[in-house]
Design a protein that fits this description.
Exonuc_VII_lsu_C; 5-stranded parallel β-sheet; coiled coil; 49% helix; exodeoxyribonuclease VII activity; alpha/beta; Exonuc_VII_L
Length: 449
């Protein structure tokens, strides 16, 4: 049979075309299956097979993505893998280049985590930012007593700052009992802090694990308990890529338990280096101070004079002051004498005896004027009184009565002006110019008018 005239492709070209077709047509996908043959060579990449009942798929998770995967990735785990379908050209292997790996069910957990995170953030539960004591005097560690986290923390503290007192508060860090146990421990530690002020910091920590393993640290009530804690709280849960609600609610977060211990206390090496720097600065400052004082001493020595010279100068100053004092005293005495003479002259002009004699003369003159004025004033007032009496007599009703008129009054004392105001038989009183008369009204025509 004659060979085909069509140009043949090389294996490399065919594999390249197949890779391009897979990457363009399929692109990024999520694939769910069971892990098998998980391999972690020294390069840091992770190779594994994803399989189900009827097929399998080779997968590669490169190092730059593998460090963000929190799941431990063990054979037999059921996972969801996001990646792009490709082909490894040198061997012609069809494979999935993985970008992310999640345990099955982790998507729902992440959605619940985001909803609860948004709710607590809106309430201000993540607003804690109190400074932690540095270094703490008494550190309270909430973690499992058998986990690797407490061993890492104690090892770092012993190396960096062995002076810190550490108390382990054993609590479960996984499962349904973990969150209630940690909440109860936080409440107890805050109540006891009033009795022991040296307890000044709490570390909540555990090692890495899957999202399900760390889910106790996403408990809403635990986040609120951390937020309301009077003691400062640091959270260090899982690895660097793991983030929990406890981390957000705490005053500070550390990526790992070891990193938390490093942040809580200073390192001995750092302190020694700092002390050496301070020692050198102190030595330089001491030398500079000694140099300054030496210069000051030289300056004072140059200014220092012989005691005899100083005494002679002071003696001359004393004589000058004595002369000034004597002159001032004489001037003061002379001024006092002049003042005394002036006061004596003023006193003579205003002698009490002269003032008394002058007052007596004024009193006699006033007494004489008073005796002269009294008769005149009495006569004037008498004449005015007589005139007023005559005016009063002229308008007095008694004067009218004296001319023969009378005033009639009834028993009630009311003045009768008309005959119609009386009744037959009524008793009346007539007031005359001199005396009164009792009258009785008789019936008649005049009374009726």
């Amino acid at each position: 049979m004659a060979p085909n005239d069509s140009p043949a492709l090389t294996v490399s070209e065919l594999n390249r075309r197949a890779r391009q077709a897979l990457e363009q047509d399929v692109g990024d996908v999520w694939v769910e299956g069971e892990l098998s043959g998980v391999s972690r060579p020294s390069s840091g990449h992770v190779y594994f097979t994803l399989k189900d009942e009827r097929a399998q798929l080779r997968c590669a998770l490169f190092r730059n993505r593998a460090r963000f995967v929190a799941a431990p990735m063990r054979d037999g785990d059921h996972v969801r893998v996001r990646g792009r379908v490709s082909l490894f050209e040198p061997r012609g292997d069809y494979q999935l280049i993985a970008e992310a790996v999640q345990a099955v069910g982790e998507g729902e957990l992440l959605a619940a985590f985001e909803r609860l995170k948004a709710k607590l953030d809106a309430e201000g539960v993540f607003a804690n930012a109190r400074p932690l004591p540095y270094p703490p005097r008494h550190l309270l560690v909430l973690t499992s007593p058998t986990g690797a986290a407490i061993r890492d923390v104690l090892a770092v503290l012993a190396t960096r700052w062995p002076l810190v007192q550490v108390t382990l508060i054993p609590v479960p860090v996984q499962g349904r009992e973990a969150a209630p146990a940690m909440i109860a421990a936080l409440g107890l530690l805050n109540r006891q802090s009033a009795l022991d002020p040296a307890r000044d910091a709490i570390l909540v920590t555990r090692g890495g694990g899957s999202l399900e393993d760390l889910w106790a640290f996403n408990d809403e009530h635990l986040a609120r308990a951390i937020f309301h804690s009077r003691l400062s709280v640091m959270s260090a849960v899982g690895h660097e890529v793991d983030v929990t609600l406890a981390d957000f609610a705490a005053d500070r977060r550390a990526p790992t338990p070891s990193a938390a211990a490093e942040q809580l206390v200073p390192g001995r090496a750092e302190l020694l280096a700092r002390l050496r720097v301070l020692e050198a600065r102190l030595a330089r400052a001491e030398r500079a101070r000694l140099d300054t004082e030496a210069q000051r001493l030289d300056h004072l020595r140059a200014r220092l004079r012989h005691p005899g010279e100083v005494l002679g100068y002071r003696r001359r100053q004393l004589k000058q002051l004595e002369g000034r004092l004597a002159r001032a005293m004489r001037a003061r005495l002379e001024a006092a004498r002049q003042r005394e003479g002036q006061l004596r002259q003023r006193l003579a002009l205003r002698s009490p005896a002269a003032l008394v004699a002058q007052a007596e003369r004024r009193l006699a003159l006033a007494h004489q004027r008073l005796h002269q004025a009294m008769p005149r004033e009495l006569a004037r007032h008498r004449e005015r009184l007589n005139a007023l009496a005559r005016e009063l007599q002229a308008v007095s009703p008694l004067a009218v009565l004296g001319r023969g008129y009378a005033i009639l009054e009834n028993d009630a004392g009311r003045v009768i002006r008309r005959a119609a105001d009386t009744a037959p038989g009524e008793r009346l009183a007539a007031r005359l110019g001199e005396g009164r008369l009792a009258l009785k009204v008789l019936p008649g025509e005049d009374a009726a008018d």
